[in-house]
Amino acid sequence: MRLLFGYGNPGRGDDALGPLLIERIEQCRLTDTACLTDMQLLIEHATDLAGFDRILFVDADVSCAEPFEFSIVQAKQDDSYTSHALTPAALLFIYQQVYRCAAPEAFLLRIRGHAFELGNPLSEQAGNNLEAAIAKVRQWHAEH
Hints:
Elements: E1 2-7, H1 17-26, E2 33-38, E3 54-61, E4 68-73, H2 88-99, E5 105-112, H3 124-143
Parallel strand pairs: 1-2, 1-3, 3-5
Antiparallel strand pairs: 4-5
């Protein structure tokens, strides 16, 4: 079973890319796949990871290459470990601490965003990147 977890702030322009991707993927009704969105990753989300074999985190990023970057995520304690908002690696580390077992296989899809100001709509460039990222998620789903 897979979990697609998109996070970001829908009220801040391109920061909505993670939740928007999840919204679009939910319409595809992919088999053996659950979807989750939130504004940011929190310690409490460790419990949401339980029961999944593979997790794909999806977020907007102002510094990654166009249209997106896809990478493997390893559980790791980092500077976000004790903060309010976590990295995917720190969330996986917390999962391991809570459940005393290896974290599920995890990946991070960072979609290139350009305009993150409060109240902005999704930029045209980010919209194009979103379409490319959706194709990548569908491919990833088919292969895993």
